[in-house]
Request: fold
Amino acid sequence: MARIINNAGLELIKSFEKCELTVYADQGGKPTIGWGHLVTDDDNLSIGNVITQEDADNMLLDDLSDAYDAIAKYVTSELNDNQYSALVSLVFNVGIGPLEGGVGRKLAAKDYPGAASQFLLWVHVRTPEGVEIISMGLVNRRKAEVALFLKT
Reply:
């Protein structure tokens, strides 16, 4: 059976991803809906379109499967359920960059505290004007992910 996020990880994601049933522009200007789902051309949605809660929940499950696949591809070290779920949250939020970079290198070396510290580098967003800023929301999310990652 394929590995999935635990309840603590799912609740962490939901605590930082407000569920919006109407397409809106996120702080980086990207069209977003549901539990932080970035709208693509395949979704056939645009700013102002509305979906159901069931649609939003299904989008979240679909989006998490991408994170599961990325972790399976990039991480070979053993992870407990909390470590795995914290990684799912991170990858769901920012993509595979951390796995290709410092988080992945530290995990390959089985340096779990070092991997946790690398989460804290992923706190920047680019404004619609192209300015890179630190997002306090991402700082708080990364701290919560680190706490879950380090929880035994």
